[in-house]
Amino acid sequence: MEALELSKPRTLPVGHRFSQPLLLTLEDIIAGAAFTGDANPLHNDPQNDHTKRMGGVIASGSHVTGLFTAMIPTEFSKYGPMIGAQMTVKFLRPIYPDTRYEMSWAVRDYEWKSKLGGYLYRLAGTIEDRDDGDDLLIVRADADIVFYGENGESGR
Questions:
Q1: What percent of the chain has pLDDT over 90?
Q2: In whole angstroms, what is the distance from residue 90 CA to residue 155 CA?
Q3: What angle, 0 to 180 degrees and rounded to 10, lies between the N-to-C axes of helices 26-36 and 61-76?
Q4: CA–CA separation, 126 and 101 (whole Å)
Q5: Which CATH number does the domain housing residue 143 bear?
Q6: How many CB atoms neighbour CB 154 within 10 A?
Q7: 6 found inside a domain
């Protein structure tokens, strides 16, 4: 039996970057926490003592992570199918309402994986506070995805 030859799809280059703003209102934060099932009072009760110690209501990690990580399939699906493989997210500071943030991802590297029939991409992500002028780092993340190329032309 003849072995199936897999063709390598077109790739997105190292350094490819995509970003979008993040600006959540207090109502967005409360609704996002409720939607994800996060009942922590830090995300919905401005009068709670712990919330006051945090400087006010803060966004749920589940909510923010969902918005942040959804950027990856939204971007890559413009070029072809992909699936997520793994992700780590580190919150360095809280995300507050009515503060302008920027969410960004960049391609660190990639390599062809014939067993997967696609490229394993490694991405680095950040969320930065844009309100204070110092571009303060709020979240740092890493993600691996499998990208199958234009129109899924991985030969499978």
A1: 82
A2: 36
A3: 90
A4: 10
A5: 3.10.129.10
A6: 23
A7: no
